[in-house]
Each structure stands twice: as structure tokens, then as C-alpha cells.
Recover the amino acids of this structure.
């Protein structure tokens, strides 16, 4: 069965540093991968989408890489700020069924001043 | 645009009671989804719809039913609630690979 793994432990970093979150998957050939931000008590908010034929995508301070050989995506936040503190979810879409999403459990990021 | 809205925000049910959760979107999206989110687990897909009048089962459909009579609304029903259905429920709609989530409904079944 498909499995998506994100670091279950919280990531604590200092303001201004680059945060790097990992998403690994098995038994899967996704059509694309998404990253979301979720704040406590709120719904996920879409951040970035990267397709299987893309290696890297950038949006402002965010960068996502996608290695289909390693079956891994890395999500980077450069020049991190306390306002970036949240839980970040990765989700994979597979083309066999209307691009239904499978989500990882998320990694909590805490950026300290 | 209000985006995706969900009603109610909170609900407490007793085992065996029924209820309907309403999801509405004003973005004219074809695809809509219902998920549940439990602690330590990823969002799990319950049911989804690819257009008005269509529904399909997701990963965890047992104990739930859905209807999509109007394009803008996607209803999730619990016919006989069980404590295992205590969860936070999220609705989402999609356009061009970007999914928009509602604020969630926190449901407790006693």
C-alpha cells in the first residue's frame, strides 16, 4: 500500500535560518506532489505543487524539490520567520483516480526569535 | 469570494444519532472532497465528487454517505454516529491542481 512519511518530531530552528522538511514515499508513482501549511484549528492552505517531471519549484522564500528516484521531496523555507511556525503537510496525487490525494501526517515547524 | 465554507463548526452527538455536514464553495469548482483528520495521522479521504450529481468512495467511506445535488454544495451524512467517527472533518474543492480547504468541523461522538 502507499505510504507517505514526514518527520513526526517537531523541527525547531532559529529565525533567519533555512528550514528543511522531508517527505518520503513508497510504492507509489505520483502525478504530482503538493505542500500545505496548516495552523492550529484551521484548514490546510495550499503552498506549492510540483509535477513528476519537475526537479525544483520556487515561490518567494519557498523551494520544493522532487526526486522520483529517491522517492523524496524536500521543502525549504529560507530566511525563516516566527510567522512561519505551523505544521506543514505533503500530499501526493496519483493519476489513476482523478488525482486523489494521499497526505502525510505533517511536520510541525517552530521558528524561534 | 467566501471560498470554501463548512457548517457547523462544532457538534457533539450521542452514539446512534445522525447528522449532516454541509460544505459550500462559491468558486464554481467541479471537484470536491471530504476528509477526516485524526491526531498523528494524515488527512484521509472519505468521499469525493468530480461534478454535480456524481460521488465516489475514498479511502475510509464506511459509515458515511454523501450527495452532490448542486455543484456548489457537497453534503456528508452520518446515519448512525459511532465514537470512532470523532474527528475533525475538512471539505475541499479543486481547480487546476490547487486544493482549497474549508475551516473544518470538529465532531465529537459520545
Amino acid at each position: 500500500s502507499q505510504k507517505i512519511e514526514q518527520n513526526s518530531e517537531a523541527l525547531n530552528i532559529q529565525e533567519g535560518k533555512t528550514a528543511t522538511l522531508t517527505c518520503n514515499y513508497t510504492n507509489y508513482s505520483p502525478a504530482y506532489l503538493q505542500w500545505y501549511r496548516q495552523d492550529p484549528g484551521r484548514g490546510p492552505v495550499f503552498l506549492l505543487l510540483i509535477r513528476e517531471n519537475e526537479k525544483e519549484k520556487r515561490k518567494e522564500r519557498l523551494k520544493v524539490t522532487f526526486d522520483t528516484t529517491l522517492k523524496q521531496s524536500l521543502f525549504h523555507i529560507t530566511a525563516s520567520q516566527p510567522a512561519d511556525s505551523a505544521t506543514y503537510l505533503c500530499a501526493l496525487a496519483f493519476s489513476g483516480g482523478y488525482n486523489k490525494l494521499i497526505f502525510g501526517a505533517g511536520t510541525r515547524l517552530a521558528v524561534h526569535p | 469570494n467566501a471560498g470554501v465554507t463548512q457548517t457547523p463548526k462544532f457538534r457533539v452527538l450521542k452514539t446512534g444519532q445522525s447528522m449532516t455536514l454541509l460544505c459550500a464553495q462559491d468558486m464554481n469548482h467541479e471537484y470536491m472532497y471530504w476528509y477526516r483528520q485524526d491526531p498523528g495521522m494524515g488527512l484521509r479521504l472519505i468521499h469525493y465528487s468530480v461534478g454535480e450529481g456524481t460521488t465516489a468512495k475514498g479511502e475510509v467511506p464506511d459509515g458515511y454517505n454523501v450527495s452532490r445535488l448542486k455543484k456548489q454544495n457537497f453534503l456528508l451524512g452520518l446515519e448512525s454516529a459511532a465514537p470512532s467517527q470523532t474527528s475533525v472533518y475538512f471539505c475541499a474543492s479543486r481547480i487546476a491542481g490547487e486544493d482549497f480547504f474549508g475551516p473544518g468541523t470538529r465532531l465529537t461522538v459520545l
About this structure: Chain B has no helices and eleven strands. Chain B touches chain A at residues 4, 31, 33, 35, 40-45, 48, 50, 56, 58-59, 90, 92, 97-104 (CB under 8 Å). Chain B has a mean pLDDT of 96.
